[in-house]
Design a protein that fits this description.
Elements: E1 3-7, E2 10-14, E3 19-20, H1 22-30, H2 33-37, H3 40-59, H4 68-86
Antiparallel strand pairs: 1-2, 2-3
Length: 99
C-alpha cells in the first residue's frame, strides 16, 4: 500500500521503507521495467541461461530414460499438493495473552 502526503508542493510517496519525491517517481517511470527490477549482471546471467537452454540440447547426446520408480516422483509430489490444497484447514484454538 502506498500513501501520499502533500509536502511543499511535492508528493512524497511512502512505500515499503522508501521515500520518493515526485521527480524520483517520474524518473523511475521513465526507466524500463527490466532496469528497475534487475541489475545488468542479473539480466546478463538470465540471457546466458536462456541461450544455454537453447544450445545445449543440440550439442549434448540424448540421455537414456530414467528408471521407472523415478518417473513416479512428480506424480507423488503432485498428488500430495492436490491433497493439501483440497484438505480442510484446521487451526487449533490458541489463545494468546500478553503479560
Amino acid at each position: 500500500m502506498v500513501m501520499c502526503e502533500w509536502w511543499r508542493d511535492e508528493i512524497v510517496v511512502i512505500g515499503r521503507h522508501r521515500r520518493w519525491t515526485k521527480k524520483t517517481v517520474e524518473k523511475k517511470r521513465e526507466e524500463g521495467l527490466m532496469v528497475k527490477f534487475f541489475s545488468a549482471r542479473s539480466i546478463f546471467l538470465l540471457a546466458l541461461l536462456a541461450i544455454s537452454l537453447l544450445v545445449l540440447p543440440l550439442i549434448l547426446p540424448p540421455l537414456p530414460p530414467p528408471p521407472a520408480p523415478l518417473l513416479l516422483v512428480p506424480v507423488l509430489i503432485m498428488s500430495v499438493l492436490i491433497l493439501l490444497a483440497l484438505s480442510p484447514y484446521h487451526m487449533p484454538n490458541v489463545i494468546v495473552t500478553s503479560a
